[in-house]
Each structure stands twice: as structure tokens, then as C-alpha cells.
Design brief:
With about 100 residues, this protein is an all-alpha fold. The chain contains four helices and no strands. Helix 1 crosses helix 3. The longest helix has 20 residues. The protein is globular and about 35 Å long. About 20% of the residues are buried.
Length: about 100
């Protein structure tokens, strides 16, 4: 799992820095690998989302915090990519893609 998590983190950074069809496809494939490994262990959807979230936090992409006056904690592009990854996690677990 550690290798798959490292690949996911690397692919996330690539997609964040140079978004393209290729980097997004590689990101999705890396995410699928992580989800498949966790699913094979019987991991629940909530725990899979938490694992993906932990990989993102390790990349410095923490969950957005509700604020009224403070600037955004993370850039909007990274926040959108983060949300997409969490949605993809559930879709991968339920085999709703590919």
C-alpha cells in the first residue's frame, strides 16, 4: 500500500502542477490502485476516503476550513482536484467507471 500511496501523491502533484489529459488519467489510475488495494482488504468507504485524504494532507493539501475573513487555505485548483479525488474514490470502490 505504501508504494501505491507514494504513486498517488506523485501523480497528484503532477496533475496539480501540469493539468492535462495524461496527468489526470495517471492520477485516476493511481487512485484506482489505492482503492483496489484497500477494497481487497475489506476497507469501508469512509476509511478509504480517510486514507486518500491522508495522502493529500501529506502533500500539503489539507481539507478546506470554513472561514469568513481569512484567505483560502489552499488554491482553488488544488481544492477542486482534491474534491474530484474523493469523488473518484467512491466511484472506483463502487466500480462506477472504467
Amino acid at each position: 500500500m505504501a508504494g501505491a500511496a507514494r504513486r498517488l501523491a506523485r501523480r497528484f502533484a503532477e496533475a496539480r502542477d501540469r493539468a492535462s489529459l495524461e496527468t489526470m488519467a495517471a492520477l485516476r489510475a493511481a487512485l484506482t490502485e489505492v482503492v483496489d488495494q484497500l477494497s481487497a482488504r475489506g476497507t469501508t468507504v469512509d476509511r478509504i476516503a480517510a486514507a486518500v485524504d491522508a495522502v493529500l494532507c501529506a502533500q500539503g493539501i489539507a481539507p478546506p476550513r470554513p472561514t469568513l475573513a481569512a484567505p483560502l487555505a489552499i488554491p482553488l485548483a488544488a481544492a477542486g482536484l482534491r474534491a474530484r479525488l474523493l469523488r473518484w474514490s467512491v466511484q472506483a470502490l463502487r466500480d462506477e467507471w472504467w
